[in-house]
Design brief:
Length: 219
């Protein structure tokens, strides 16, 4: 590389920096627009269901009746969670939906919105419904909870008492927006800056080659 004066180096530095900043801004803006276009918001409504036997009816002659019965109920929670996601529960839940939602959601569509979660050392099962409407999610999770209470004793004989805890409401719905705008903007910023660095390096290299060729011809 030929020797450059301080003035030339300064000019190259500022031109390169301007190019990097401009491309970084353009990149972040473009990725931000792309993310906005692709973004979707889903709403998850939850409702807890407690399933347990009445310990007052357990006979003391059973050894450690309370611990044994509670542990048995806890061990069954994953099974109840699987049953909650079964299509037979969705068939019943659909009957409890308002007419408008019945038209919107087939049994399969309804079933695809439902998820359930058991918790370690807990008699509480959490039902979740995720849709693109907060009202739909609330209606579906409440209907599914009601259907589970009605159908579970038929599907799992010997199940304990089923208590539906507080109803889901629009105030408790959790909204999730994907993809994340900040991540895309940051990625666009980084890619734009990287592109600026590469272009600056290529331009400087080509200029250096051209100047060396010019000097070579003069000599």
């Amino acid at each position: 590389m030929k020797n450059y004066t301080l003035k030339e180096l300064t000019q190259m530095f500022w031109k390169s920096l301007c190019l990097i900043i401009i491309l970084a801004i353009v990149g972040s803006g473009a990725m931000g627009i792309y993310a906005k276009h692709k973004q979707t918001t889903t709403y998850t409504a939850t409702r807890d269901v407690m399933i347990t036997h009445n310990l007052n009816n357990v006979q003391a002659s059973d050894g450690n009746p309370y611990d044994t019965r509670v542990n048995a109920d806890i061990n069954m929670m994953p099974t109840y969670a699987s049953i909650a996601e079964n299509k037979s529960i969705s068939v019943q839940a659909r009957k409890y939906l308002p007419k408008k939602l019945k038209k919107q959601y087939s049994v399969d569509a309804l079933n695809s919105t439902i998820d359930s979660e058991s918790h370690q050392q807990s008699l509480v099962l959490t039902l979740k419904a995720k849709t693109t409407s907060p009202k739909d999610s609330v209606e579906i999770v409440n209907a599914t909870s009601k259907a589970l209470k009605q159908q579970l004793p038929k599907l799992q004989p010997g199940v304990g008492r089923i208590v539906l805890l507080e109803k889901a409401s629009p105030k408790t719905v959790n909204a999730t927006t994907k993809p994340g705008l900040k991540k895309y903007v940051a990625a666009g910023l980084a890619l734009g800056a990287l592109l600026g660095i590469i272009i600056s390096f290529i331009v400087i290299t080509l200029k250096d080659i051209a100047k060396r060729n010019t000097l070579g011809k003069k000599n």
